[in-house]
Structure formats: C-alpha cells, structure tokens
Amino acid sequence: MHEIGLAEAILEAVEKRAAGRPVSRAKIRAGALLRVVEPSMDQAFQLVTEGTVAEGAAIDLVVIPARLTCRACGHDGSTLDPLAVCPSCGGGDVDVTGGDELVLESIETTETRDVPGNPGGDRGDPPRSA
Ligand SMILES: [Zn+2]
C-alpha cells in the first residue's frame, strides 16, 4: 500500500513536532503527483499511529496541484491529475513539475489539564428518593 510509506513519513514529522504531547489532528499538504486521497491516507495513518502520540488523530489532507506546461502549444497551468493532458490543445506532450511534496503543515495537540470541578454539579450520586 502506497500510503503506508507516506503515513510513516508523516508520523515521523508529527512525533517530532508533538514532542510527546498527544496529537488530535494533523494537517498535511500532499502534492497531486503522490495521488493520495484522504480516505486511504486516513486509513494508513490510523494503522501506523497505533500506540503512538498520534493514535486516533484526524487528518486534514490538502492536495497541492502540480504545474503543467505543454510543449506543443505552450500552455502553462496547474493540474491535480498526474496523467493530465494539455487542457488547451489536448496534447499529451506535457511537462508536469512539482506536486510531489509531502509537508506536515500543522498539528493540534490535546493538552491534558486538570479541569476544576463544578461545586454545584459534581456531588457524586444524585439523591435518591426512597
Ligand atoms: Zn497544449
């Protein structure tokens, strides 16, 4: 599975940035040429993060378009399709550059805090009427 290797690379970056804090969400930018889709990326991430600080973390996947340059007509644009043909002339003689990056943009951590009790509401069992 192609996504597993990518998920492992992401996990490595996440763990570095989290520095031991539990991670609830990771935002990732992936180039279009990596051909990752969120459901399979998410699945792979859940697999590799088992037992790590990122276990159960959600993924936000943003796909970065690649740059497409047509050698036939000179069209210059961007594409999300790694096998794209020129949208201008329909030719297949195109250069697709970029779009192969994998970047961890940000993470969210769940900071565990002591939540002060509510004196009015935290009184154990509710009184029972006998
Ligand atoms: Zn063209």
Kindly describe this structure.
There is one protein chain. The protein has 130 residues and is an alpha+beta fold. It has a single domain, classed as hypothetical protein PF0899 fold, CATH 3.30.2320.50. The protein is built from two helices and six strands. It has helices at residues 2-18, 38-48; strands at 23-31, 58-64, 66-70, 76-79, 94-97, 102-109. The chain has a three-stranded mixed beta sheet, with helices on one face. A three-stranded antiparallel beta sheet has the order 4-3-5, with no helix packed on it. A hairpin with a 5-residue loop joins strand 3 (66-70) and strand 4. It is elongated and about 80 Å long. 22% of the residues are buried. The model has no long low-confidence stretch (mean pLDDT 88). Bound molecules: zinc ion. The site of zinc ion has 8 residues, from loops.
